[in-house]
Predict the 3D structure of the following.
Amino acid sequence: MQESIQKIEALQVENNNLKQQQHHLEKSLEQYQQAYERLQQQVNELLRHRFGQRSERDLDPNHPQIDFLADEKTRKKATVPLENEVEVPAHKRRKKQKNNTSQYPRVIEIIPVDEADKICSCGNEKTVIRYETKELFDYVPAIHRIIEQRREVVACAKGCCSIQTAPAPLQVLPKIKATESLLAHIVVSKFHHRQPLYHLEKYAQAVDVSRETMSRWLIWLTSPLQPIFNLMKDSVIEYDISSIDATTLQVLKEPGRRAQTKSYLYCLRGGLPDRPVILYGYNAGKHQAFVDNWLEGFQGKVHMDADSFFDTLLLDPQVEASYCNAHARRYFEKVKKQAKKQGLAHEALRFYKKLYKIERYAKDNNFTSNQRYELRQKESQPIIEQFKIWFDEYMPLVLPQSPLGKAFNYAIKYWDGLCQFLDDGRLEIDNNLTEQEIKPVVIARKNFMFANSVEGAHAICMHMSLIRSALANGLDPYQYYVAVLKKIPHCNTAEDYEKLLPWNIKLQ
């Protein structure tokens, strides 16, 4: 009897051990399954990035978009009313404004009437009463030429006084053999038209300017242009709305760092709405301190993503973060692209689609900031409240380390900042406008690939700042650069430099 009891106890112990082993194996299997799904998600995302479509446009099969190329019958069939769709009244869109061409040279060409048609049947000569006008856009090929400056040297024929020489004209870089027009052409060609310097060297063989020489010129221009950059930065600091973003930049010859180490180039947008400013800044390390120093004195709200680079800046109680909803949406969009069936990611994207539809309506109708605030309070606020209830309901059901769990965690963690746009009509729902200003740098970087030195990196930031700010204020960057480079040598005070800001300068 005692022996049977011992066998039963031994079997129970063995059974408990087997159950524990089974439990551990199930846990391990679950962990391996989650790890596999995370790796598969990364592989799919890499394959999509390398070979697939990168567009983040949401095509929901339950709420299809209408193909504008389809015939009318197909379009009517595809029209499915969205559930809980935000209704907006019908409206008329304004015509697209024409570009300002007043800054370009204008040639008046008079086309006369035939001599035979100038005589009236009564015998009198007809007079011109008006013109039928038509504007044609023309192109004049670039011309490289040599300007030979001859400064007069005068002296008395009797030799009774000293010889006088005409003073040399002031130049922004007096020791180089280049006019302001050539310098402006090099700057705009490299950074705006994205032409590598070896292309410009090839095209300018007649004037014998090497790419090394052009590189030095670009770097030397940063010093005389610095006061204009500083004034534009002051304009950003003085306004209470700005935005910031960053991208990588490789610098080969940087003290204490390997050539393969990535540094960062920051983009800062701000200034008054009618005086937009776009600035770029280079930084190699200690990014939190750099951002905090770059925005020293700023008080207000900053559009940004939730990068750790901006943590120190947000320790200032006078600075508030308006987080980018496009980033939060992007987490769900990646999950949705990999999903095999309808799920929570699809639901989240439907909420975002409703919010962005309201933003599109305000933009198409050129709403003022006050009108946009009222529209958001009426239409967007209820959607945001429903969205938050949805988050709280499904948050406990998702695995924290899964891609969907990370999407939920990001949105919940930064919820207050993601909702900032509701309280101020001047704020955007996302930081896409700044990302659009990062894109020209990224495209140009595909050509120049890297900066050779730290000075070269700062030169990239300087010239991109002036070019993009000039474009934002409706100026042609080449004409702006020519005017600025000609006037800088004559600037002696801060007021002189203020006249050269993109919103103050008058181009001929």
Q: What stands out?
A: Residues 66-83 have pLDDT under 50 and may be disordered. Residues 63 and 83 are 9 Å apart (CA to CA). The two ends are 113 Å apart (CA to CA).
